[in-house]
Amino acid sequence: MLLLSKESTTMASFFQYSVHLADSPFWAFAVHDGHQIDSAVEHFMLLDETQRLREEDPYTASMAELPINQLFVGSSRFQLDVNRKEENSVYLRPEQAWGLEVWKDTLPSTVLQQLYDDHKNFYKQVDSYIQQTIDKYHFFVVFDVHSYNAQRADAKQPIDKHANPQINLGTHYNTEKWRPLIDRFMESVRSQRILDEAIDIRENVKFKGGYLAQHILDKFGNQGCVLSIEFRKDFMNEWTGLPYQPVILEYKQLLLHTLKDLQKLDVYGV
């Protein structure tokens, strides 16, 4: 599909994301891909770049760079996590951040309020984009692309593949109406191979879908579906951040192939 326009958006002064608009009812989100920390926030940050990268989702925007509408967040989730509710979107306590102490001292109230305002503004914009898509096409489908760690102990830890599927598809918050689309997504992925190996994709094993999916589906769930696609970090060294480019490219091709399969599916009437 032809990419019609491109725009970059900075919400207030701290939060950054980009939006690419296409003639399509499909969206690709990569809300945890970002690594940027705004200068007004950075000197309060205790974590270094390596610690932050460990829990971010690098390269997911590259995988989600598909010929559809795109929304990619450039700011780190350690500054503002828009996949959580507003009250939990800034990691103020270690238990919100995998046991990590994120900030040197208590954040000034003005900084914290600006971050919460950024969260509100982001969701207002997301709502607007989804509503515009519904107005034009009468439905929407979101590929909500993430990744997750499977070697929590150390880099040499054997991956428990039974407990950690190669792809976890979060579908829990969708209505039953979208079951045929979800099934087609699963079938399409299973019909493909990665590096000439079968693909292990399962639903709601590690993650059911984050707050972004819940919010969109609470408001618009009768008109669309959110597929929260969590790739196990087989495409990189999750401890060093070193990418495995052939796997990244194959995951992008997998999403592209699956997108084409879904575009053929006649289940979008509302």
Automatic annotation (TrEMBL):
<protein>
    <recommendedName>
        <fullName>N-formylglutamate amidohydrolase</fullName>
    </recommendedName>
</protein>
<dbReference type="Pfam" id="PF05013">
    <property type="entry name" value="FGase"/>
</dbReference>
<dbReference type="InterPro" id="IPR007709">
    <property type="entry name" value="N-FG_amidohydro"/>
</dbReference>
